[in-house]
Design brief:
alpha/beta, Rossmann fold, 2 domains, six-stranded mixed beta sheet, four-stranded antiparallel beta sheet, 9 helices, 10 strands, 27% strand, globular
Length: 236
């Protein structure tokens, strides 16, 4: 569904991505694991249309989307939930969710809203509450729910559990798995919790200094001694 070919990107003279080749298959969860500064967020931003690319291309569902503006990429069914949630804090939960459907058929909103509230029942009691007053976990649910309202075919998730309590993080991981399983939604996941990222993943990659250094199934990388030593010390 997604093919990244020879992708280079950077910030001025700083090269953040160095020839990334990546393929994400329809219906799978692909996880990217790496230390801070490895280039993971830059990769998602570049896929999503941020003007960071210096070479290479991005193909989504057979169409070259390299250089398309972000709103056109969203209209094609590729939706990015960025690190830090980036909800609209002064808008209510319901208004935030409506913003997610700007590129979708408005007639689908009631049924799509019901799906989101079934997935994240905490939001049902918060529909009239401003987004900025929600807890961190509720804001992350809102950010993911807003993306789902647009009926994406693929979801890019950047650090969904960042800053969350373990129980709330586990609930989010279960929701991501349910979205993938029940909606057949393809997911490209960046996650600081390497153990959970690899546990969820059908396939995964390790990124180091802007390059992919190791690939395999989630189970293979979980069992790899080098991966365990670098990323899974103390994980459970």
């Amino acid at each position: 569904m997604l093919a990244v070919e020879g992708l280079f990107a950077g910030y001025g003279r700083i090269e953040a991505l160095r020839g990334i080749d990546l393929e994400v298959r329809a219906g799978e969860i692909m996880s990217l694991v790496g230390a801070n500064g490895a280039g993971k967020t830059t990769l998602l931003m570049t896929i999503s249309g941020a003007p960071l690319r210096t070479a290479g291309r991005v193909v989504f569902d057979g169409e070259d989307i390299t250089g398309l503006p972000m709103f056109e990429i969203v209209r094609r069914g590729l939706c990015h939930v960025p690190e830090g949630r980036r909800i609209f804090p002064r808008m209510t939960v319901l208004e935030n969710l409506r913003m997610g459907g700007y590129a979708a058929d408005p007639r689908n909103f009631p049924s799509d809203l019901e799906k989101v509230l079934t997935l994240f029942p905490q939001l049902k009691q918060r529909l009239g509450q401003r987004g900025g007053t929600l807890s961190g976990g509720e804001q992350q649910m809102l950010a993911i729910g807003r993306a789902l309202i647009g009926r994406p075919r693929m979801l890019l998730l950047d650090e969904p559990s960042l800053g969350l309590a373990p129980l709330m993080a586990l609930q989010l991981f279960q929701a991501i798995l349910a979205i993938n399983r029940d909606e057949k939604l393809t997911v490209l996941l960046i996650e600081q919790n390497a153990y959970q990222a690899l546990k969820l993943a059908d396939r995964a990659c390790i990124m180091v200094n802007g390059a992919i250094t190791l690939r395999g199934t989630g189970a293979e990388l979980l069992a790899d001694p080098a991966v365990q030593a670098a990323y899974l010390e103390g994980a459970a």
